[in-house]
Structure formats: structure tokens, C-alpha cells
Fold this protein.
Amino acid sequence: MTARDIAAAVRSGDRSAVAVLEEHLDRIAARDEELHAFNLVTADAARAEAEAVDAAVAAGADPGPLAGVPIALKDNMCTRGIPTTCSSKILEGWCPPYDATVVRRLRAAGAIAVGKTNLDEFAMGSSTENSANGPTRNPHDTSRVPGGSSGGTAASVAAGFTPLGIGSDTGGSIRQPAAFCGVVGMKPTYGAVSRYGLIAFASSLDQIGPFAQDVADAAALFDVIAGHDPLDSTSIVDFEPVASDALGRGVDGLRIGVVRELSGGEGTVEGLSPDVLARTQEAVVALEAAGATIEDISVPSATLGLSAYYLVAPAEASSNLARYDGVRYGLRVDAPTTGEMNTASRTAGFGPEVKRRIMLGTYALSAGYYDAFYGKALKVRTMMLRDFAAAYEKVDVLITPTAPTTAFPLGERTADPMTMYVNDVCTIPSNLTGHPGISVPFGVGDDGLPVGVQVLAPALDDVLTFQVAAVLEAAGGPR
Ligand code: GLN
């Protein structure tokens, strides 16, 4: 059942939110020991919320567009009084004193939060293997990773634990796991969704976005969470996009560009696998058949995104993570002096990838290296903005694969960070530019696992990404 169907049934009184919830809790109970999508299932709190929704319906009130729809929250979204860990030991025992704006909006829309999902520690990773709680497994093949860092949310939606999920995307963490798990995942324009209550990784890149089993459900969720929030200073004023209305518009007359450097054309980055490129080509053919005009587009600096990201993101992370000092949040390891206590707490609390990023970022920002590394990365970022702006003079949207490969085996890429970082080569550019992007399943790879195709659009054209994704979904090939 789609989230739309559930909400319609609950709103009309045909089904109770409590019954819907119990059905989904049963699925979680049956399989989450194997998959480990959740860090925490908040069954009792969810039951109370579902009862409130049913009571509203009984009283003749409308509980909202997502009435009774179970939803999974990535465990870096603050939930009042409920542990929020970022899958890190350093936040052990910490409960936020407030709810993130997305959490409040979801509740106001009638959605039922069922728990907090596993992620790479502080959202740093592409496989959910960097979690202090152990990895999540891909529901389609449990020997494979679900992608990351929102791997728990992606697995929850793919396994049918929850029709909807919330993730965050700093360099691809919604879109890449969506591709690996065969679901829809969307990163909105920077500032389209409030980040109040999202635990910061790299603040100039982080965005919250929706996961769903199909494009229309993802659009319904996006419509609920998008919109201005005075509590987030980066939130865009007067931007209230509605994606659900655009899904039937088709692509007739749209100009669609295929990014040469990310899609197998001349000068393509290394490591894109042939089956993924073949599905991307087929997606382009499907869009052409639906009436779009196709153009081969060069975005030369797109290939520099990865290098710029691995300076900008760690630099911002080194600053954001300085607040975990053993004093204010979670874990404290006692020691004779405050300085030693800080060091002992951070040494025990952070995992190896987080430490690597803090060191990389601190180095890139240090006197003598700032201009050579961080400053240079900012220049590349500006160059990318210009290149994409030039591309969007010629076309309305751009197409690339979402990830270079299908889901890879657990353990395969943990030894060498570089092979892990390459996962985000196609998704990172739109984080650096702040543009929206969506991953939609399009057929399967040679191994039978899902392939995702990515639709990119200029800033504020979020609705257009859903519109094009709906056409790809309809053309889709086997899932
Ligand atoms: N995989 C990328 C990283 O490790 C992106 C993570 C994200 O989007 N949160 O930084």
C-alpha cells in the first residue's frame, strides 16, 4: 500500500492508524534483526500518536495529508526526549530537548514516527558501515550494503517497514542509498527544507529530504516538509513548492541534458560501471520517447566536485564537531584536567572515519594551508556554479547515473577510503551548488540489483525533478 492509500484510508475512517502501525511494527519485528535498519524503534510513542490520529478522525477532524502513515527518521534528526545518536558513541545517553522542524511538520501532517534509523557516524560515509552500532544490510541482498549515509532509512523503505522515510544529504546520502535499495530519494534545493534540529555535518551542504517507494509518495512527503522556517536562518523565504500537482505534466517539450563527464561520454570520470551507464542511456531514450529533446552537455568542472567536497565538508565538520567535548552532550570520560577529559572523551567517542575527517578539515583550515586547500576548493565551487548555470541556459534538467555501481558487498570498500569516496562522484556537484536532485529506480544491473538514475535541476526547480522522475518511473523496466 502506498503512503497515499494509507492516508486516504485513515482519513476516511476505512482503516485505523493503530492497525496500520501494528502491521508495520510486525514487519519490523520479523526482519529488522537481520537488516538493522533501526537504531531504536519507538513503538509505544508511535502507538500513542496513532491513537491520537484515530481520535481526531472519530471526532470529525482531519489529521492531515499523511494521516497514519508510518515514517522512519534518520538518527541525526532531533526528537524531543528520544535518544538521538548519529550512530556515534559520543552522543550516548543524550536526548534532545526539542524536536526538529521536520519532525514537528510530520506530526502536524498526521504521520507516525516509528523510530530512528542507522547511519554512518555523523553521516560520514556511503555504506552505513561507519556506524558505531554495526552496519545495516540491503533488503534486496543481505550480503550487500544499503548505501549511505542514510542506509537505515533506505532499507526501512525498501523492506516495507515504513512507506516513508527521512534522510539527510550532504554529498549524496539520500540519493545513493535510494539507488542501492531501489527506492526514490530526493535532495531538495539548499534551504527548501528546514534544517532546524538536524545535527550538523557540513552546514553549507546539508539538506534534509524524502525517501519513498514511489515518486508520488516522495512528492507528498516533500510537500509536507518543504517551506520556510524562521528557526533556520538558511531557510528560503517565500518558497512553498508543491510537487504533487506536477506529476502528470510529462516531459513533452522539455530540454534534457545528459552530463557528458558523468554519463560515459568524452572525459568521463573513472569507475562508472557499464550496466549503470546502459540503464542511464535507456532512461534518456525513454525521456526522448516521451517527448523531451535530448542534448549532450558538458559540465567540465563536475569532475572536480569530489576533490572540492573532501576539503569543504571536512573543514566544516571539524568546526561543527568541536562542540562534542565531553561537557555538554553524551559521553564523558573522566580525567584529571578538563583538557585531558576533552581528549579522552573525543578519543573514546568518535570512530575512525570521523577522526579522519576532523583531521583532514583541521589541516585544510590551518594557517599556511588555508589558501592552498580550503580557499582553492571554494574557487572550484564557484566554477561549478558557473558551469551548471551555463548548462541550464541550454537545458531544463540534467541526467546522470546516481551512483557509479549497484550495491557492493559489505566489507569490500572499508579498507580504502578513496574507493568509498568515489561513490558520490555524481551526487556531490549538486550539494556544492545547492541544486536539487532526485534518484529514481530504473531497471537493474548485471547482478540483478537496483540501478538509480539521477535528475538534476536548477535551484528552486525542485518540482521539476519530481515531474521528470515520474516519467522515468512509468517507463522504468523491472524493479
Ligand atoms: N558519502 C559522503 C561522505 O561520506 C556523503 C555523505 C552525506 O551525504 N552525508 O561524506
